[in-house]
Specification:
The protein contains seven helices and 13 strands. With 305 residues, the chain is of the alpha/beta class. It has a domain of 209 residues: Spore Coat Polysaccharide Biosynthesis Protein SpsA, Chain A. A hairpin with a 5-residue loop joins strand 7 and strand 8. Helix 1 crosses helix 4. It starts with a strand and ends in a 9-residue tail after the last helix.
Length: 305
């Protein structure tokens, strides 16, 4: 079996945050959230990282992230660009938004050829999450079905006071396997707990705070790449024409389709760690306080690399 690779989604525009949040420091030593993720990944056993970035950000990203960690883990880059559309399709006039997380992962085809983990660049997942996922990837292979995994977190531990968030809301069976996952792109805190809207706030549907959610921390075999290629082709044929400026191909939705077709299983791995991230600028002070607390508790040294 090939050694697992870590794939980091870092091509997001950061529109809600107001800048390139992937390279914004979260402590006095200049570390970014992504540094802590890679530190945990190296401790777990990962030997290679593939960054999915926008070509226009390559210079800044290399200088701020890639060049420094390349002394500790093999680094490779792939680029998610608007121009990467399936043969026979055109980019809609005026489109600037990326095509979504499923499209981003597909950009790794030809670079990633074995088992791999997927994370977001701007989310903190915790040390145990990486160790658990690495163990899964080194002990599971596809058989009559694709054998995937996801690290799950409780919704209540992933909300922000500063606006809405997007989460993959999950239903699991009695054995801890994913039954369904639904991408909710606008979830907010409420007086009763949480709720989501699909009509820009006209109506809200309540969500329990203990709902298991995906924070885009996945474990896949290389089989997912062929499946995503088919999915992205279908997306451009069926979804883009009706919503040319904003349609996105979401990874959780495509995984859910494979579940419903009986082609894959997804084992939901629980993490003992608390997730946190920077969706909005106002989230940053809490993240900095959390990092300082983890250092004080001895989870991380003051200087990682």
């Amino acid at each position: 079996m090939d050694k697992p690779v870590l794939v980091i989604l870092a091509a997001g525009m950061g529109s809600r945050y107001g800048g390139l949040k992937q390279i914004d420091p979260v402590d006095e030593q200049g570390h970014k959230i992504i540094d802590f993720s890679m530190f945990d990944a190296v401790r777990a056993g990962f030997k290679k990282v593939v960054f999915i970035i926008k070509k226009e950000n390559e210079k800044d990203f290399r200088e701020c992230v890639g060049d420094r960690v390349s002394k500790h883990i093999e680094v490779e880059y792939v680029f998610q660009e608007l121009t990467k559309v399936p043969e026979g399709f055109q980019i809609p006039d005026g489109r600037v938004k990326p095509w979504g997380t499923a499209h981003a992962i597909l950009c790794c085809k030809g670079v990633v050829n074995g088992p791999f983990a997927v994370i977001n660049a701007d989310d903190y997942y915790g040390r145990s999450a990486f160790q658990t996922l690495y163990t899964f990837l080194t002990t599971h292979e596809d058989d009559e079905k694709f054998r995937y995994a996801m690290v799950g977190y409780e919704l209540g531990n992933t909300l922000t006071d500063n606006g809405s968030v997007a989460r993959g809301c999950c239903v699991t069976d009695e054995n801890g396997f994913l039954k369904t996952i639904a991408e909710r792109t606008k979830i907010v805190k409420t007086a009763e707990g949480a709720a989501y809207t699909e009509d820009d706030g006209a109506t809200y549907v309540p969500l329990p705070l203990d709902t298991p959610v995906s924070m885009n921390m996945w474990g896949f075999s290389a089989s997912i790449l062929d499946e995503l290629e088919s999915a992205v082709n279908s997306f451009f044929a069926n979804e883009v024409p009706g919503n040319p400026m904003k349609a996105e191909c979401f990874l959780p939705i495509e995984v859910d389709k494979l579940l419903q077709q009986g082609k894959a299983t997804v084992e939901v791995l629980s993490s003992k760690d608390k997730w946190f991230g920077v969706t909005y600028k106002e989230d940053k002070p809490f993240v900095m306080e959390s990092i300082a607390r983890l250092k004080a508790d001895g989870v991380y040294p003051d200087v990682l690399w």
